[in-house]
Amino acid sequence: MKEIDINTWKRKALYECFSAYDHPVFNIAVRTDVTNLVEFCKKRELSFFTAFLYVVSERLNGIEDFRIRIMPDGKVVLFDKIDPSFVVMNDCGVIVTCPTPMEDGFSRFYKTARDNIEKARKGNLPPSFNKTDRRDLFYISCMPWADFCAVGNPYNMKDASATSIPRLTWGRYSSENGRLLMTLDISVHHALMDGLPVTQGFNAVQAALDDIENFLK
């Protein structure tokens, strides 16, 4: 992790502008072709959610803008690595958060994530939801019950630090013209990034999905 000097940062003017907004967050939703990943997971009896979770987390980690955060003390920092923190519905029908380390390699990540998911499902109700001071996270949600076009995420706009954490959301995939498509929605803080790196993120994810056999080997 390293601190960014705002006074010499190329985004200084943009940071100061959008940080003053009442609502500095924007989101973009893109239809993502997951046909190859669905087939890959079915052949190997793997969880589609966990495999897609790895693809998204690994690809976005490769784009510097997605690793920049506003800290609680107001400093802006660049993290070396971001871990996914996703929601799991437990046996009581209540969602709980499940942070998982971004392990090197798909096999290691998959095992750790599946173990954490099972623990979250069977665990007792936590005293609070998402009570953490960590900022080196992606907040991730999946709504497998609906094939939506876009989604809005809840934010506490009084907390700029928590608001600086990107939100990633996807839903159910459906068949369109012989392919399986699914909406991936990415929501980010405009003081930290613009539309170009978000678009680069979508493109990186799709490129990995198109070559999934090599990407997850």
Description:
There is one protein chain. By secondary structure, the chain is α+β, with helices and mostly antiparallel strands. Helices cover 34% and strands 25% of the residues. It has seven helices and ten strands. The protein has helices at 12-19, 35-44, 48-61, 106-122, 160-163, 195-210, 212-215, and strands at 2-4, 25-33, 68-70, 76-78, 83-89, 95-99, 137-142, 167-170, 174-176, 179-189. Strands 2, 5, 6, 7, 8, 9 and 10 form a seven-stranded mixed β-sheet that branches. A three-stranded antiparallel β-sheet has the order 1-4-3. A hairpin with a 2-residue loop joins β9 and β10 (179-189). α3 packs across α6 (195-210). It is globular, with a radius of gyration of 17 Å. The model has no long low-confidence stretch (mean pLDDT 95).
Task: Spell out the key features of this protein.
217 residues; alpha+beta; seven-stranded mixed beta sheet; three-stranded antiparallel beta sheet; 7 helices
Low-confidence stretches: none
- Approximate strand percentage: 15-25%
Q: Over the alpha carbons, how many angstroms does the gyration radius reach?
A: 17 Å
Q: How would you state the average pLDDT, rounded?
A: 95
Principal-axes shape call: globular
Counted by DSSP, the helix tally is: 7
Order of helices and strands: EHEHHEEEEHEHEEEHH
Structural class determined from secondary elements = alpha+beta
For the report, how would you describe the main beta sheet?
7 strands, mixed
The helix fraction, in percent, is 25-40%
How many β-strands, per DSSP? 10
Straight-line distance between termini:
29 Å
